[in-house]
Amino acid sequence: MAYKNLQHFIETLEKNNQLVRIKEYVNPELEITEITDRVSKVYGPALLFENTGYDFPLLINSMGNYERMCMALGVTHMDEITAEIETLFKTLTGPKEGLLDKLKMLPKLGQIASWMPKVISGKGECQEVVMANPDITKFPVLKCWPEDGGPFITLPVIHTKDPLTGIRNVGMYRMQIFGPQLTALHWHKHKVSARHFNEYKKLGQKMPVAVALGGDPVYTYAATAPLPDGIDEYMLAGFLRKKKVELVQCLTQDVQVPADADIIIEGYVDPEEDYIWEGPFGDHTGYYSLADWYPKFHITAITHRKNAVYPATIVGIPPQEDAWIGKATERIFLGPIKMTMVPEIVDMVLPMEGVFHNLVIVKIKKDYPGQALKVMNSMWGAGQMMFTKMIIVVDGDVNIHDNVAVAKYISENVDPQNDIIFSQGPMDVLDHSCSKMAFGGKMGIDATRKLEEEVRSTTLAGLSKVADLTIQVSEIQTKFPEVKAVNDVMLKLGVSLVFISVEKTRKGHIEELNKQLFESGLLKNVKVAIYLEHTIDISDVADAVWRFSNNVDPRRDGFVIKAADNSQISHIGLDGTRKTKELDGFERDWPNILASTTETIEHIDKIWDKLGLGQFISSPSLKYQKQLYKGGAVVEE
């Protein structure tokens, strides 16, 4: 369905008991984040802060669970969109043998035309109020986490265009506020807007930019969608909302924006101007992304609806609202991936703990030897999938949405020395584990049932299912005192994997310890050991996976122990500890994890009963404060 505006979406959320209005004063600096973090961790309601000290209410966590994400997209289940895309693709690309078949296509072609965005004449609702003196500080822009460089606009729908072709791009890049008419634009080197910027630089021209906030929530989603270059995000939005997006001309820049948006910020970037030092920022990885140089955005006009609502989000240690936006992408783009690149794919999951690019699980219909490797390489060559650090491929009837079931399947079907491949390539700029920024190691795991040509030895078949997975934790800690904790809960579930926390004290410590543990027989039937530092609570498996997947460069930090003969199990250790210059030769700064301050936590505790949020929810930061490293956003050596 198409929402008339953001207010319409708010009303719909409220009718479905998915929204709480908070009338108590809450400061946008740190306090809204603390409340939202508590609520998002329990998949709680959308929050409308009506008393922020500003003239505009603030909406947050509006897409923070499965039901609300579906409501934003106008469906009951996300797989409805996948099925519709597949049907449309088959209709348009299937063989057309006769006139009747061709005529049957006409309604579909008409549908596609109806999704194309349209520029309308006159002003839009987004231009009902024109600020005489544009001032972005008049809005309740959040400072999210204690070490953030300042307040950041976190849901900006940013419009740029290619100066040579005029083709529009709509993306989402955070904006740090530096003054009433100055922000930074944080676009990474791989993004389309960064390419547009480089084209304007070659031409010696200023780059017009417009930012939309609010409107139909599908605009926000479309701005995050990993569309191929040159495909209009507003065509996707039209398809999702079943109604074309109406655009209006900006007042001071040659850019078109949604007429029903709540707030429009117009301005330009001068490619000849020096960059500004932007950040740090508490990011979706659960760590700070560190400060760096980014382009300045000069504001030339701000317009808004009369009853405008300022939309925002926070990102941080999962789960957060962005996990559900990622879930939508997982489901929506499953169809196109199957249809155009990897036809053997049956299903795909991006686990929340993998924060988008760190981990993906793919299920295929397997027909021939080496097919899992073909799938891995295809996906690493596909758009933003190139950033994926770890790809696990399964087959058969396993339910990949059941974490324990898929873990058992992987455990039973993987021979570490034979079924794990290491590669390298481009990585997400936010990946702090790479020795070189945006370039690092990748790991592919073939967890499919093996055909005869793929096995190291037929004597290994079924061995994982009958192996004794009990270990002597006390003996391990006695012989290796640097081991501070062992989490063997996965072994008890029949999964050949163990988490080990270690106080790392010397160069090569983890690789050496891994070799000793396996060669001593203390982990005889364990295939995988994941090592984390001793400050981490490894009893929480989801947290352990989140920390590991952020901290590991698999090619650098994976240590395979080959079997002595073809009748024995092989092993792999993966070093998910923090890397330092002293012990690892790691030259880059290492970022801290995210946690609220004690002062903020205590204040929200005191006012909780006034917020209308029901039963008290303790701060997630109480746990993570204990795991903070020394230093601020950058960890001290």
Fraction in helix: 25-40%
Calculate Rg over CA atoms.
26 Å
How much of the residues is beta strand, in percent?
15-25%
Mean pLDDT: 93
Counted by DSSP, the helix tally is 23
**How many β-strands, per DSSP?**
30
Structural class: alpha+beta
Distance between the termini: 53 Å
Q: Stretches where pLDDT falls below 50 for ≥5 residues? A: 101-106
Main sheet specs:
9 strands, antiparallel
| Coarse shape | globular
Protein name: Menaquinone biosynthesis decarboxylase
Organism: Solitalea agri
Family: Belongs to the UbiD family.
Domain 3-octaprenyl-4-hydroxybenzoate carboxy-lyase-like N-terminal: 10-81
What does this molecule look like?
- With 637 residues, the chain is an alpha+beta fold.
- It has 23 helices and 30 strands.
- The strands form 7 sheets. Strands 5, 6, 7, 8, 9, 10, 11, 14 and 19 form a 9-stranded antiparallel sheet that branches. Strands 21-22-23-25-24 form a 5-stranded mixed sheet, sandwiched between helices.
- Helix 12 (371-380) links the parallel strand 22 (359-364) and strand 23.
- Helix 4 runs parallel beside helix 11 (334-340) and helix 8 packs across helix 9.
- This is Menaquinone biosynthesis decarboxylase.
Supply the key terms.
30 strands; globular; five-stranded mixed sheet; nine-stranded antiparallel sheet; 637 residues; alpha+beta; 23 helices
